[in-house]
């Protein structure tokens, strides 16, 4: 069974009118990263997903982006990986994509629920190819999206059979103004600003633009919370639901 130390990574997401890449990079830089192994980002732009990953710190990622810029978008997801196992490498960085390159996923913590990469989570009905937990989650989310599930429903279906202490966050090229995340056993932080919203694994990632901050705590019964940030016109709506899909906060 694959296990990872909880809270070894950092997650930052943004939905709004500003440059999502700049906002996410700023959030990643606010996280402590003395032992950072790699950093990465996914931006929704021009009807697709653009990603960049680099070994090292967020500054190393920024240098890679200076050499090969990504298109400008208003939704993005970033990841900071702390990993002392071996030398840092670009290939270890997140986000990870599904096979079609339409879903990007980042993860913090440890996921249980499948015994090896070739077995699906109990009850999911979806066989998995060999891969990491994060790649498997991206494939499952892509399958749920292709079946017509919305972002919150897809995340609930994927996380339902999974256990452990983790945060998953994802974006989909078919829904460019939406970011979805789930937390089980670990908290999430949501920040609301003027026509924008932020998602982070730690409050330290949020900047002064986050005027209203909410800590999303997983329920004590071991269930999950799903958070959706969705841009509608000039506003970004935040919705938090429980494992049954019931809205617990807007």
TrEMBL record:
EC number: 2.6.1.16
Superkingdom to which the source organism belongs: Bacteria
Stretches that traverse the bilayer: none
Cross-referenced SUPFAM superfamilies: N-terminal nucleophile aminohydrolases (Ntn hydrolases)
Keywords on record: Aminotransferase, Glutamine amidotransferase, Transferase
Chain positions covered by the region annotation Disordered: 69-94, 112-131
Glutamine amidotransferase type-2 domain mapped to chain residues: 9-230
EC class (word): transferase
Known catalytic reactions: D-fructose 6-phosphate + L-glutamine = D-glucosamine 6-phosphate + L-glutamate
PROSITE patterns in the record: GATASE_TYPE_2
Composition-biased stretches (Basic and acidic residues): 80-94
Name by which UniProt lists this protein: Glutamine--fructose-6-phosphate aminotransferase [isomerizing]
